[in-house]
Design goal:
This protein is α/β, with parallel strands linked by helices. Helices cover 52% and strands 10% of the residues. Strands 3-2-4-1-5-6 form a 6-stranded parallel sheet, sandwiched between helices. α2 links the parallel β2 and β3. α11 packs antiparallel against α12. It is globular and about 55 Å long.
């Protein structure tokens, strides 16, 4: 019988950190992050990284381990996360994978091969240069001409995915298939999937408040420090919500109030995309925290449902 791995996913600001720590403590587990921003060192505020106090409550893997100058992708995340999960299982503990980066989660629950299909480094560099010179929209327009379906799936500002799609297309003559066409469950373990949610109004309030608190905690100074290290808007680590808006503010494109409004708006939009992504999975258990008047009661019921799913 395959060993079980608990996944706690959900939209930004829903409360994943609290619930993952509670689950790890209650079930003798360790947390494996599935968050593409919390991997970076010195990016603590904007990524809403678990605080040192929170990290002390449960062992965390793949948090705060990578310099922000370093390129990193899901192809590099997958083997590191699988190794952490295997190590935790081998020590008789429960891996608790927690985060909201859908592609990171999918790389673990499905057999996704990040091999060298269509890899052409010189072509990739040329496409990246073209994107820097002409803008992402120009590259997205080219993708729309050659593969309208891929262009429909890929956001016009997601340079990395646009470049990858064009690279595969121009190298192999074939488009990147939609993920649903290649969803084969992992054989490594049995995923037990829980997605946290809240009523829309409450979630949006939490997102808006979190963004405000990030600014009050010193997000602008954090970004200034990263820019002083030589990072800029072209670095992958600086494309995250919170960082890109503050960079534009520091360049004089708009004032601090407008930067906050944009972080709030973009975070709400991101939360919607995350929920759409997780709804695709028919095996997902959904837990709406707003159904409970008291947070402690919600957490108690959540842990009861998790234990039932793990032992059922």
């Amino acid at each position: 019988m395959k060993q079980k791995v608990l996944f706690i996913v959900g939209p930004t600001a829903v409360g994943k950190t609290k619930y993952a720590i509670a689950a790890a403590r209650a079930l003798d587990g360790e947390i494996v992050s599935a968050d593409s921003m919390q991997i970076y060192q010195r990016m603590d505020i904007g990524s809403a990284k678990p605080t040192p106090e929170e990290q002390a409550q449960a062992v965390h893997h793949l948090v705060d381990f990578l310099p922000p100058q370093q390129q990193f992708s899901v192809a590099e995340y997958q083997p590191l996360a699988k190794a952490a999960i295997s190590d935790i299982l081998n020590r008789g503990k429960l891996p608790v994978v927690s985060g909201g980066t859908g592609l990171y989660v999918n790389s673990l629950i499905y057999q996704m091969d990040f091999g060298v299909q269509g890899a052409d480094e010189s072509l990739r560099r040329a496409l990246e240069k073209e994107a820097a010179e002409k803008g992402a929209e120009a590259l997205h327009a080219r993708l729309r001409e050659k593969d309208p379906e891929a262009a429909e799936r890929i956001h016009p500002n997601n340079v990395q995915k646009i470049v990858r799609a064009l690279e595969v297309l121009e190298t192999t003559g074939e488009g990147i298939p939609e993920f649903e066409q290649s969803f084969v469950k992992t054989e490594d373990f049995e995923p037990v999937l829980f997605c946290l949610d809240r009523d829309r109004g409450e979630l949006h309030q939490r997102i808006n408040l979190r963004a405000k608190l990030l600014f009050e905690a010193g997000l602008i100074d954090e970004v200034k420090g990263l820019l002083a290290e030589g990072l800029d808007a072209s670095d992958i680590s600086m494309k995250g919500i919170g960082y890109k808006e503050v960079i534009a503010h520091l360049k004089g494109e708009y004032d601090e109030d407008r930067a906050l409004e944009l972080v709030q708006r973009n975070s709400r939009r991101y939360a919607r995309r995350q929920l759409i992504w997780f709804r695709r999975n028919p095996e997902m258990h959904w837990f709406n925290i707003s159904d409970y008047e008291e947070e402690d009661r919600a957490l108690e019921e959540f842990l009861r449902q998790v234990k039932e799913a793990l032992h059922g």
